[in-house]
Design a protein that fits this description.
It contains six helices and nine strands; from the N terminus they run H-H-E-E-H-E-H-E-H-E-E-H-E-E-E. With 217 residues, it is an alpha/beta fold. It has one domain: 3-Layer(aba) Sandwich (Rossmann fold), CATH 3.40.50. The chain binds S-adenosyl-L-homocysteine.
Amino acid sequence: MSGEDRFLQERQRMVDLQIAARGVKDSRVLAAMRSIPRHLFVPISFRDAAYNDCPLPIGSGQTISQPYIVAVMTELLQLQPGDRVLEIGCGSGYQAAILGTLAREVISIERLPEVAGMARENLASTGIRNVTVVVADGTLGYPGGAPYDAVIVTAAAPRVPQPLLDQLAEGGRLVAPVGSRDLQELVRCTKREVGISREYFGGVVFVPLLGKEGWPE
Ligand code: SAH
């Protein structure tokens, strides 16, 4: 079997055993996870582990998230094909590629220039063209593109940054890991006419969100 065929087979198993079997139901999310070649978003030395049930190092002390967590957070965003999405914490660009497959346009913010450069290369090698990677402090959001139908934070935040809530459209959803530096809980904030509703979805562990509205650098 060729390398690409093996990766394809491993990817289908990843979705069946790690994601669908654990309760992710959204067929568009499952299809996106079946299609995006995750092995192109990890360093070459980790390629054989790309479809394992865990996060992996991507350099600069950062990680690519566990596939299951990517799927859960994406499902919570309830994306429509016409949506515009803001991601904070581009990392490898893998989550951004999934978002780009499901939405119209994605802006993904990364604070480390070398990581942003890697993400741009990974996205280009996958042929994803509707994701723009911006180097900035994402805790301030990206006002130039607001309002967003969905916002996803993929680094651990001490609280939901207020600028991100401000930049959410009415009816918009924000998903973030919020808590201490060691352990967080996934929260979904939905912006309503009268305020913001919050729902909680269990414990997760992310690398810290560093910045003005995050942890001190
Ligand atoms: N979504 C990524 C995983 C994120 S890892 C993926 O699919 O691979 C978290 C990333 O958030 C790291 O690359 C880190 O540098 C970045 N980060 C941390 N604080 C940030 C901030 N204030 N603004 C933007 N990016 C930030």
